[in-house]
Amino acid sequence: MPIEDYSGGVSSETDVIVVTTNDVPGYQVQEVIGEIFGLTVRSRHMGSQIGAGLKSMVGGELRGLTKTLVATRNQAMERLIEAARARGANAVLMMRFDVTDAAQVGTEVCAYGTAAVVAKTAP
Fold first, then answer.
1. What start-end ranges are recorded for coiled-coil regions in this protein (predicted)?
2. pLDDT value, residue 82
3. Could you tell me which of 116, 123, 117, 100 has the C-alpha nearest to residue 42?
């Protein structure tokens, strides 16, 4: 399977910088806008649940669930970036994920961070 199926992150084509750090090397924070988040809730597919239950008896990676979680995190990040743009930010600092069960019928994934305006520093 291609690595794209099992990894995520921000596209290199986006105009919003997303980092898990307090600052961005080579940039200066000009304005802190505030907390933002992107949220999605995915229901569990009955077929994948049955397959996961069977796989858990013999061990190994649950590839279907892994791919679903990657897609869900990527969707939450896309919504986070949309929220940053809507508030006038060009960066998200201290980005994190929070994942929880949603009433035992799905998984809630929240990408959150601090929206900010950053500018390149002079060399």
1. none
2. 96
3. 100
| Among candidate residues 7, 75, 9, the one with its CA nearest the CA of residue 41 | 75
Q: How many domains does the chain have?
A: 1
Say what angle helices 63-86 and 46-58 make with each other, to 10 degrees: 130
d(CA 88, CA 64): 37
**pLDDT at residue number 87:** 97
Q: What is d(CA 42, CA 9) in angstroms, rounded to the nearest whole number?
A: 19
Q: Residue 26: which CATH number?
A: 3.30.110.70
Tell me which residue range forms the domain holding 53.
3-120
Residue ranges in the chain whose pLDDT is less than 50: 46
pTM above 0.70, yes or no: yes
Q: What is the pLDDT of residue 114?
A: 98
Distance CA 90, CA 19 (A): 12
